[in-house]
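in:
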């Protein structure tokens, strides 16, 4: 994937108010950074396509009008223009989806760090990694910064041609579906905030497994989660902590084997999570809004094992499995 003018505006186009045409959207975006650009008024067509269509599908390079340059349009003005000229053309219920789709393009664009690292930091104010760790985004600022990055840097618009067709409304909706956060739009500040939910969900699963694990331990002295107090939680909280009775040796053995698999996968998950964090600054690990493919696969494996263990505990006679489908 490449972050360029075409992939940027194609994403906006799928999130626009329906009455807004493709040329109107392109003109509104371009006008924020180059008011006298021919793209604002040009309605010429070539091969049945408008200039706007060619730009969105990365057939043309983006070219400023004569005399225009980055210095002609300070970021504060571009951001204000975006706030008044572009954001009103986007459906409010698509704000979070649009934002996630644009962040996904950034996440997948490997050239940002290899070729445009300084330019990216210049316009966005932070590195690619730091931007992807944020959970709060002011929409006019983010869109304005992205417009400046895709037009003022040496970012070839035609470099996005192999990727721009991937950006469809279905693609955008799937990104939100696979994200690890819930969004909230604050209209007063025009800010989208994400509440990370996957950390909480994983902890709830592990807490449940921790309770269940006590039922397959052989040592009675370890059948408590309150060892540090020297008491048994099942005695102290009889109505809240009821151990699952697993008398069948085969079921206990099966569950124990799956717990070992879970331990292996959770360690792989931790390694993958750490690889996406900047550990040099001694910060705590952060769950991303948009997980990598590796993280998604590992998280799904953990969830599958959780469901299998719970099914074995509740319905031991209905769950038969001689081998795991999880690879080491």
């Amino acid at each position: 994937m490449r972050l360029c003018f075409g992939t940027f505006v194609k994403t906006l186009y799928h999130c626009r108010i329906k009455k807004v045409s493709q040329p109107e959207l392109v003109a509104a975006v371009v006008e924020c950074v180059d008011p006298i650009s021919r793209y604002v008024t040009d309605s010429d067509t070539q091969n049945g396509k408008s200039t706007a269509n060619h730009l969105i599908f990365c057939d043309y390079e983006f070219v400023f009008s004569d005399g225009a340059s980055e210095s002609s349009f300070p970021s504060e003005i571009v951001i204000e223009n975006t706030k008044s000229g572009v954001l009103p053309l986007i459906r409010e219920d698509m704000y979070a989806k649009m934002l996630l789709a644009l962040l996904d393009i950034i996440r997948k664009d490997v050239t940002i760090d290899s070729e445009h690292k300084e330019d990216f930091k210049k316009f966005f104010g932070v590195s690619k990694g730091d931007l992807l760790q944020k959970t709060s985004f002011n929409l006019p600022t983010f869109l304005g910064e992205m417009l400046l990055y895709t037009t003022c840097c040496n970012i070839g618009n035609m470099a996005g041609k192999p990727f721009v067709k991937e950006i469809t409304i279905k693609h955008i909706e799937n990104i939100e579906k696979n994200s690890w956060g819930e969004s909230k739009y604050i209209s007063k500040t025009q800010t989208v905030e994400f509440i990370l939910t996957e950390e909480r969900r994983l902890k709830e699963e592990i807490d449940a497994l921790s309770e269940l694990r006590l039922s397959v331990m052989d040592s009675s002295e370890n059948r408590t989660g309150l060892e540090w107090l020297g008491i048994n939680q099942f005695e102290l909280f009889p109505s809240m902590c009821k151990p699952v009775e697993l008398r069948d040796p085969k079921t206990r053995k099966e569950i124990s084997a799956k717990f070992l698999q879970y331990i292996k996968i959770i360690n792989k998950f931790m390694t993958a999570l750490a690889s996406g964090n900047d550990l040099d600054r001694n910060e705590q690990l952060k769950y991303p809004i948009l997980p990598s493919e590796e993280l998604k696969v590992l998280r799904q494996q953990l969830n599958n094992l959780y469901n299998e263990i719970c099914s074995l505990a509740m319905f031991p006679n209905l769950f038969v499995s001689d081998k795991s489908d999880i690879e080491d």
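note: The chain has 16 helices and five strands.
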